[in-house]
Amino acid sequence: MDHSRISSPAFRSKIMSADEAATLVPHGANVGMSGFTGSGHPKAVPMALARRIEQAHARGDQLRIGVWTGASTAPELDGALAKVNGIELRLPYQSDPVTRERINAGAMDYIDIHLSHVAQFAWFGFLGHLDVALIEVTAILPDGSLVPSASVGNNKTWLDQADRIILEVNSGVSTALHGMHDIYYGTRLPPHRKPIPIVSPGDRIGDTAFRCDPSKVIAVVETNAPDRDTTFTQPDATSKAIAGHVLEFFSHEVRRGRLPPELLPIQSGVSNVANAVMAGLEDGPFGRLTAYTEVLQDGMLNLLRSDRMMLASATALSLSADATRQFNSEIDRLKHKIVLRTQEISNHPEVIRRLGVIAMNGMIEADIYGNVNSTHIRGSAIMNGIGGSGDFSRNAYLSIFMTPSTAKGGSISAIVPMVTHVDHTEHDVQIIVTEQGLADLRGLSPKQRAASIVNNAAHPSFRPALQDYFDRACRLSPGKHTPHLLDEAFRMIKATS
Fold first, then answer.
1. Mean pLDDT over residues 186-196, rounded?
2. Do residues 278 and 299 touch, judged by C-beta distance below 8 A?
3. What percent of the chain shows pLDDT beyond 70?
4. For residue 40, what pLDDT band results from cuts at 50, 70 and 90?
5. Could you check whether the bond before residue 26 is cis, i.e. omega within 30 degrees of 0?
6. Residue-level pLDDT at 275
7. Would you give the DSSP letter of residue 231?
8. Where are the alpha helices (DSSP H) in 62-137?
9. Residue 188 pLDDT more than 80?
10. How confident is the model over 249-295, as pLDDT tens digits?
11. Does the pLDDT at position 231 exceed 90?
């Protein structure tokens, strides 16, 4: 290593190996790590820490830590630490299969949190004490400030709150990212809060680098490693059909005067369906688009490259291998179209509501009244977590949830009488879309919503059973506002699981 990414002599004196840095993380520590949807996570120290934990457990010694991040990370972080039973507590979001297995087996505690809440909960002291921050950066500048990597997430808060800091300086990430970030230092604790000064998606209100107290830095580790590339499949017939219904709805709203021709800022969750919607927008009639979202993925990058989208604000890049190469080859042109913010700002309810964001997110299931489950299988087993979908759905101008109408080869209906777990209540869900059609729930009573969802979103093979349930509930339920037969509400789920 030539140390060229580390311009501060004070930080150069703290360079060490990943194995040496891993010894500085004690048993029981809460560690705030960088990383958001597979980008910007530390690459070397978590693997070294996993090896150290495995050796400690083989000796009969205890060594487990709490892991706090921005969102999901990668196998070399979550997976490696979970595999050696090294995580005591995980928050606020994960998508790793080994981690998920341990959580659902009761071997790891997990706190699922709205992503906009994490930083403020840390500042409020609700999460306990943060002992160590382990953060990937692309460079350390002469004044000691830190150039963020491909995600920002909660890194500002981890750097501010932690007693000790370990930095991974990744030379595998382009230094041209410098200038793309917007790190806001104006948040305050109640009762001293002030309005967030963002009135359009591209407004810049902060610094381009993290501030860092050099006295807290205990190790600097040099790496050269890529992010985990997100894999997206080509849109299939189902995702194209869902995208088609969404785009037709947008055109309808423009004709009715409820959306401008350039739409409103778009938020899109991470999924193949969301990428299909982005692909549809690229070919659609809408121009001069903008985005105010969490994650910039392939479809949105293509919109920026084609100039169909003028600007995107996010907290992380989550790209496939091909999209990463395209991004790096055009970074000097694209960096002026992209703002990467802290996730407490990218997901801030105040800003989302002010901008009138169009929120599009996935779900596991919805019930006939519009309640949405986006986190749990059969009510008790976590899938990934709520992520930022709640931040956006409750505060959006339009709140859209999308999913194929069936799962497991058509044996399970995504539309059920009653969801087994509620993440988004009927009050926060305006539009439900499957390949079967679009249910517009705005201005409808519960029974009207049920009719729209069953007729427009449910798969035809499950429609008769859902209609029969609803009809009998309307007759037999003691309350007729939201009719339910509680002794059989989950019978369809049991029959198809």
1. 96
2. yes
3. 99
4. very high
5. no
6. 82
7. P
8. 80-83, 97-104, 118-124
9. yes
10. 999 999 999 999 999 999 998 778 888 888 888 888 999 999 999 99
11. no
In this structure, what DSSP letter does residue 248 have? H
With contact defined as beta carbons under 8 Å apart, do 486 and 479 qualify? no
Q: How far apart are CA 189 and CA 314, in angstroms?
A: 23
For residue 464, which amino acid is it?
A: P
Radius of gyration for the chain, computed over Cα atoms and rounded to the nearest angstrom: 23
Which tens digits make up the pLDDT trace of 3-13? 899 999 999 99
- 294 tagged catalytic: yes
Find the Cα–Cα–Cα–Cα dihedral 286, 287, 288, 292, rounded to 10°. Answer: 40
**Cα distance between residue 202 and residue 180, in whole Å:** 11
What is the reported pLDDT for 329? 93
Would you give the distance in Å from CA 99 to the centre of its chain? Answer: 17
d(CA 228, CA 73): 8
SS3 88: strand
Distance CA 390, CA 392 (A): 5
pLDDT value of position 284: 86
By the 8 A CB rule, do 388 and 378 touch?
no
Q: Which of 294, 344, 426, 435 is catalytic?
A: 294
Strand order from edge to edge, sheet including 372-373 = 372-373, 365-367, 415-416
Type of residue at 440: D
DSSP string over 277-304: HHHHHHHSS--SEEEE-SEE-HHHHHHH
The three-state secondary structure class of 37 is: coil
Question: Has residue 434 got a pLDDT over 90?
Answer: yes
- 222 Cα distance to chain centroid: 27
Task: Supply the pLDDT for residue 496.
Answer: 53
Upstream peptide bond of 460 is cis (omega within 30 degrees of 0): no
Alpha-helical regions (H) of 211-258: 237-255
CB 369, CB 417: distance < 8 Å: no
